[in-house]
Amino acid sequence: MFITWALIQSALELGIIYGIIALALFLTYSMLNVCDLSTDGCYTMGAAAGAVVALAGHPFLALFAAMGTGILSGLVNAFLQTKMKVESMLAGIIVNTGLYTVNICIMGKSNLNMNTTETVFSMMKDLTKDTFLESYSKMIVALIFLVIIAILLALFLGTRLGLSIRATGNNIAMVKSSSINPAMTTTVGLCIGGAMTALAGCLLGEYQKSVDVNMGTGMVTVALASLIIGETIFGRKNIKVRIVGVIIGSCLYRVIVAIALRFNLPASALKLVSALIVAIAISIPAIKEIIALQKTKHAAMLRHRELYQKGGR
Amino acid sequence: MLKLMDICKTFNKGTVNEKTALNHLNLEVKDGDFITIIGSNGAGKSTMFNAICGGFYVDEGFVELDGQDITFLPEHKRAKYIGHLFQDPMKGTAPNMTIEENIAIAYLRTSTSQNAFLSRVSRKEKEQFRERLAVLNMGLEDRMKQPVGLLSGGQRQALTLLMATMVPPKLLLLDEHTAALDPATADKVLDLTKKIVKENHLSCLMITHNMHSALELGNRTLMMDSGRIILDIEGKERDGLTVDGLLEKFNTGAGKELDNDRILFSK
């Protein structure tokens, strides 16, 4: 069969884990209006730190270790942006570049193998052994994390601090005049985003049982694609709908990629496919507009011709 | 309550574009003063406001509010005491957020403790917001869930005014806040300003290009030119003044003749 359930299932599992990164970008990119390009490195750092701790026998502590590193990365990024006035994109690139070395230092080499290590996924698999849930154990773990994060994020964005973060991305002058320090809101936003990204990295490392220093390359594009697919389909209504949209966007993206790869494409084509999907997803609103304008023009032309023929003869 | 002492500010120092915006400026605002400020473009009116609210730090001199030296206090900290409205109605509100969310942020100024940051807006507070909005008489209280971007300029400015005074500041700075509105809406926002200033006994500085409002509103009028205050009138002297008289004073004060077609104010 061309598309099997197993294929969709693993796509969904990945989509759910990557959904956490998409939500991180939803916070920093859509809400805070900061283009955080440190995602790639931050994601790998979470995976690396998590793997080191998991290999030491603490699969749960690994998650917190990962989030800790994510917060650190966010702090450095925010410091550069708010105190040193480095352009947000540039700050992200700088942090990202530096993190490559940091990640190798954390792991001690450029990749780690966790084949026999206990992870949150293997624990769930043991827990559900011999029940009908066994084959879904990975998805259950991923879903638990995603749902908790999505709910916390939605709740957080409704608090005064969350509102302040949204306002920072919307109108920074207004934030200052409401006696909120925009440097503080930016820092909090980037730290939370970093923690989420790193957590997703840690989960993915445990999921695929290996961590490589290059695993994060292009991750920001993938997360952005998910975010934009979600926002294009679901629009920009209220926060809750948008969060659900981003998650569905992430799963949809993975399914699209899985299907694309079924066309006997080599694995190296994945990045090009990602780039194409992002480009198309971002272009959809503009394409819609162009089509609408052409229709209006065509209708106007017909009417004009009609009037001219009546009046002319 | 507010003291500006010997304030200097020069932009682009040491370049060909060097511009002395504030030139040894002194001003003392008394409690409850409602001061109108006039002056041509580039006279330093908005720059003075920025010096007060902390948009930049001054090169020389001191800013004092209620006896406290705030010269190097960052803008967002001063905002606890100073409300600021701009000419551009877009500046004071976050367009993608709802009316309710905007007010909730403005309302944050009340909270002093840090954990208030993680609190949510309560039902009771929402009800309070509604009542406040109803005072504007623009029907905004029924549109609390709509993004502010959908409001007209006048509505946004009225909302901004409400937000800036939600928690009454010590000092309210109005930078031509009605200049971008149509005459009827401008009148409405101005009436609202008067009402809010009076009810809360705010001290207020208002920049205007309308000579009539300059004389009609408030209790004191300043005239600025080249980064200095060249005229400061109040009391009897001000009561008897007409628009023509004010213009004449401007000419003598500025030490230069303005020919009629270069008159910079609308009468």
UniProtKB/TrEMBL annotation, chain A:
<feature type="transmembrane region" description="Helical">
    <location>
        <begin position="12"/>
        <end position="32"/>
    </location>
</feature>
<feature type="transmembrane region" description="Helical">
    <location>
        <begin position="213"/>
        <end position="234"/>
    </location>
</feature>
<dbReference type="Pfam" id="PF02653">
    <property type="entry name" value="BPD_transp_2"/>
</dbReference>
<feature type="transmembrane region" description="Helical">
    <location>
        <begin position="269"/>
        <end position="287"/>
    </location>
</feature>
<feature type="transmembrane region" description="Helical">
    <location>
        <begin position="52"/>
        <end position="76"/>
    </location>
</feature>
<keyword id="KW-1003">Cell membrane</keyword>
<dbReference type="InterPro" id="IPR001851">
    <property type="entry name" value="ABC_transp_permease"/>
</dbReference>
<protein>
    <submittedName>
        <fullName>ABC transporter permease</fullName>
    </submittedName>
</protein>
<keyword id="KW-1133">Transmembrane helix</keyword>
<keyword id="KW-0472">Membrane</keyword>
<feature type="transmembrane region" description="Helical">
    <location>
        <begin position="241"/>
        <end position="263"/>
    </location>
</feature>
<feature type="transmembrane region" description="Helical">
    <location>
        <begin position="88"/>
        <end position="109"/>
    </location>
</feature>
<keyword id="KW-0812">Transmembrane</keyword>
<feature type="transmembrane region" description="Helical">
    <location>
        <begin position="139"/>
        <end position="163"/>
    </location>
</feature>
<feature type="transmembrane region" description="Helical">
    <location>
        <begin position="184"/>
        <end position="207"/>
    </location>
</feature>
Automatic annotation (TrEMBL), chain B:
<dbReference type="Pfam" id="PF00005">
    <property type="entry name" value="ABC_tran"/>
</dbReference>
<keyword id="KW-0472">Membrane</keyword>
<protein>
    <submittedName>
        <fullName>ATP-binding cassette domain-containing protein</fullName>
    </submittedName>
</protein>
<dbReference type="InterPro" id="IPR050166">
    <property type="entry name" value="ABC_transporter_ATP-bind"/>
</dbReference>
<keyword id="KW-0547">Nucleotide-binding</keyword>
<dbReference type="InterPro" id="IPR027417">
    <property type="entry name" value="P-loop_NTPase"/>
</dbReference>
<keyword id="KW-0067">ATP-binding</keyword>
<keyword id="KW-0813">Transport</keyword>
<keyword id="KW-1003">Cell membrane</keyword>
<dbReference type="InterPro" id="IPR003593">
    <property type="entry name" value="AAA+_ATPase"/>
</dbReference>
<dbReference type="GO" id="GO:0005524">
    <property type="term" value="F:ATP binding"/>
</dbReference>
<dbReference type="InterPro" id="IPR003439">
    <property type="entry name" value="ABC_transporter-like_ATP-bd"/>
</dbReference>
<feature type="domain" description="ABC transporter">
    <location>
        <begin position="2"/>
        <end position="251"/>
    </location>
</feature>
<dbReference type="InterPro" id="IPR017871">
    <property type="entry name" value="ABC_transporter-like_CS"/>
</dbReference>
